[in-house]
């Protein structure tokens, strides 16, 4: 558990690096929510609503429980989902994702995985941005086990998913490079540090960046 002003941890991660697992473990340790696929699910639902109707719904949501309540009701993804298709932009959908991420950051402490959240919240002074990566020999067996794939299939899933994420990030950030360490406060190698080690490093970094937070390491 923690005490102090609200903050957001954004996590970008290579496919198979354990980034989502690490984010979930940090969230559990701190007693806060971790959001990933549910942001896309909610954004997809909202993007199908007439704009004026959405504004009315949005106003009611903000007055009552915020987007976080809606997200809590959506199912979490248990198994990693590779992106085996080419990136196709959807500006309207991204605008809803941005709004959801921004509203979450205003109303609660949380961890947000993916969705270029570090870029969306780049002007906030209460954000710790993290990038997690690992060599292929670490990622491959993890994907093989979780998805039941061969080594060749796992390699393809890693390559295509990371390419998709890089193109998504570049398009919506105006050409920024997804894996550029300058984009982030903290870059971690989950093979060298281990999953538990990465969890500890993120919590330590939170204390260093936000001295008002009271966190048990």
UniProtKB/TrEMBL annotation:
One GO MF term, please?
kinase activity
Source organism superkingdom: Bacteria
Q: Which Gene3D superfamilies match?
A: P-loop containing nucleotide triphosphate hydrolases
Q: Which Pfam families does the UniProt entry name for this protein?
A: Cytidylate_kin2
The alphabetical list of record keywords is:
Kinase, Transferase
Protein name per UniProt? Cytidylate kinase
């Amino acid at each position: 558990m923690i005490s102090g002003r609200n903050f957001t941890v954004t996590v970008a991660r290579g496919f198979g690096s354990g980034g989502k697992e690490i984010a979930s473990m940090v969230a559990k340790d701190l007693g806060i929510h971790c959001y990933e696929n549910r942001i896309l699910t909610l954004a997809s639902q909202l993007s199908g609503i007439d704009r004026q109707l959405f504004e009315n719904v949005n106003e009611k949501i903000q007055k009552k429980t915020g987007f976080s309540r809606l997200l809590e009701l959506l199912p979490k993804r248990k198994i990693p989902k590779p992106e085996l298709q080419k990136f196709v932009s959807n500006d309207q959908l991204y605008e809803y994702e941005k709004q959801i991420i921004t509203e979450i950051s205003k109303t609660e402490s949380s961890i947000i995985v993916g969705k270029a959240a570090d870029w969306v919240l780049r002007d906030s002074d209460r954000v710790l941005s993290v990038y997690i990566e690992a060599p292929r020999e670490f990622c491959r067996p993890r994907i093989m086990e979780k998805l039941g794939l061969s080594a060749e299939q796992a390699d393809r899933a890693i390559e295509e998913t990371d390419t998709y994420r890089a193109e998504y990030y570049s398009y919506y950030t105006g050409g920024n490079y997804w894996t550029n360490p300058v984009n982030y406060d903290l870059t971690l190698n989950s093979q060298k540090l281990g999953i538990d080690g990465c969890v500890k490093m993120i919590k330590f970094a939170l204390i260093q960046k936000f001295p008002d937070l009271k966190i048990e390491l």
